[in-house]
Amino acid sequence: MTSSDPYVDSVVFQLLFSRAALSPAIAAAVIFTAAIWLFPGGIAWALSRGRRSIPGPSGVFLGMSSSLAHRVLAGLARSLDAFQLMAFSVGMTRFIVSSHPETAKEILSNSAFADRPIKESAYELLFHRAMGFAPFGEYWRNLRRISATYLFSPRRISSFGVHRVVIGESMVDEVKHQMERDGAVELKKVLHFGSLNNIMMSVFGKRFDFGKGDGTELEGLVKEGYQLLGMFNWSDHLPLLGLLDFQGIRRRCRKLVSRVNVFVGQIIEEHRIKRQASRSREADEREAADFVDVLLDLQEDEKLSDSDMIAVLWEMIFRGTDTVVILLEWTMARMVLHPEIQAKAQAEIDAVTGSSSRAVSTSDIQNLPYLQAIVKETLRMHPPGPLLSWARLAIHDVQVGKHFIPAGTTAMVNMWSITHDGRFWSEPNVFNPERFMAEEVNITGCDLRLAPFGAGRRVCPGKSMALATVHLWLAQLLHNFKWLPNSSSAVDLSECLNMSLEMKNPLVCAAVPRF
Ligand code: HEM
């Protein structure tokens, strides 16, 4: 319904002018309120500078608090024919969303959108000092440079390959153990254990036993932080509510921050003590150092305080752990649902490893194009960040297509809508990895038909590390087991959007050893 709806106009007209009792002041107030309420894009747009109508729902849009916000937005864009750009308001926050590769590229690669809106929970958890939420500027640029060189460089990723293989093998053992014990596997738990240890190894140089001591504390911290960051917080959009903290988010964040400070602070201190004991480390030893060592080496030059370091390290754990787990869980759900695709991937792996003669290694991945196509197809059908995780913020006034976007507007890309659009993908709702065997599609941010890691200056810096991990562990899981549906629960592809797009009901399946 828009302000130009003739039915609405006539009702408003009759209400106002058929009753002589209505004073002109009240009539003016009612007209003003109705005009604001019915403005395309809603209240925040109606009250903004340079109002120029972009199609979008009027009033206040409640769909962002839905666990299927990506689908709600896609449906609205379709019904309003607003694929290129749609405007909406959540409280007093102005949003735009693109569901088209053209405008998506325009937004993501424009430096005007290189900032991110900071949610209250992220601020409270000190993430404004970490890379993902740091304002576009010198501090953020330094963090990107440091992590590109010391954490995400091809050399570092390959040097951690040996840990990934060992962790993958321990997950295979855990699957065997669960099958013997329960006759079924809840894969997410196994993957979570592996992924958290993988990140802990590369960031902290430390492995944890989950379910015991420090491991239990770490699991609790990650779970709580994940929930807090994923929650829709009304205070972010209605400033007055911020005073009340009626969802209790601020209180929980503050409690969590003090626990995180103790936990991560202790690890930093352990590193300091170790470094003092061996002041003159050799260059090759440095190469094997973890990210804490790297940050300590740079601490003075880069003016990083201890709390900055905690924020940077903690963010890596949040960003790096669950995205990988969620992508692998969706991929395995697809393998269970499509046995012929699973068998084809296993035949490809067997051809490279000589069937049971040896285990999968990191160097095999480049010879497994079909397996890589399966991961791409899963990213297309189930992008872990359907609205590209965290949004962008217009730093200054900017033009997108023919539309004026005022500074302070939050911009999003609905990647889920693009990857399910029949104009860009044939049979978009069919899981078909073959499409990526027929056509090479770059998924790292060049081709906005499929950019699950975002694009432009704030593209995901962990994308190569994530893909290296997912490819290897998928190959190990498929090489070792035939995956079947569990006799008591079918695969359920229902979604739930928290911080990432998760399976609503975790995958429970059976794994039969292949050798
Ligand atoms: C399947 C796995 C992953 C997916 C789908 C994913 C997706 C994304 C997306 C969509 C963004 C926003 C990009 C944009 O605004 O254009 C992002 C940002 C980010 N990701 Fe990832 N990510 C994954 C894994 C990782 C890993 C393993 C790490 C680190 C260990 C990581 C660290 C980050 C960081 C630090 C940012 C913020 C970058 C900035 O704002 O400058 N991600 N990721």
UniProtKB/TrEMBL annotation:
The keyword Heme applies. Gene3D superfamilies: Cytochrome P450 (1.10.630.10). Its cofactor is heme. The keyword Glycoprotein does not apply. Keywords: Heme, Iron, Membrane, Metal-binding, Monooxygenase, Oxidoreductase, Transmembrane, Transmembrane helix. InterPro entries: Cyt_P450 (IPR001128), Cyt_P450_CS (IPR017972), Cyt_P450_E_grp-I (IPR002401), Cyt_P450_sf (IPR036396), Cytochrome_P450_78A (IPR051996). Heme binds at residue 460. CDD domains: CYP78. Belongs to the cytochrome P450 family. This is Cytochrome P450 78A4.
